[in-house]
């Protein structure tokens, strides 16, 4: 419960960044996109589709993604489609 309230506090203050919430083990879609080399919007779509393990939606708009979450395999690629056939 304490983590939940800490997250809400940071969201309400619009301070989800490394300075004020460095003790949290979550990142924003923007941070995940930079880390994974994809757009913030693509990360949001992956979260909505349930492809990012541990991603949580807070307040109906904000996604929180575990810092140790791995980039999902892009199912649109040829390599991913070949992997499904095996």
Characterization of the model:
- The protein has 86 residues and is an alpha+beta fold.
- It has a domain at 29-72.
- Helices cover 42% and strands 12% of the residues.
- Strands 1-3-2 form a 3-stranded antiparallel beta sheet.
- Helix 2 packs across helix 3 (40-48).
- It is elongated and about 45 Å long.
- The N and C termini lie far apart (43 Å).
- The model has no long low-confidence stretch (mean pLDDT 81).
| Number of β-strand runs | 3
Q: Please list the strands of the largest sheet in the order they lie side by side.
A: 1-3-2
- Treating each run of at least 4 consecutive H or I residues as one helix, how many helices? 4
Unreliably modeled segments: none
Index terms:
three-stranded antiparallel sheet; alpha+beta; 42% helix; 86 residues
Brief rundown of the structure:
The protein has 86 residues and is an alpha+beta fold.
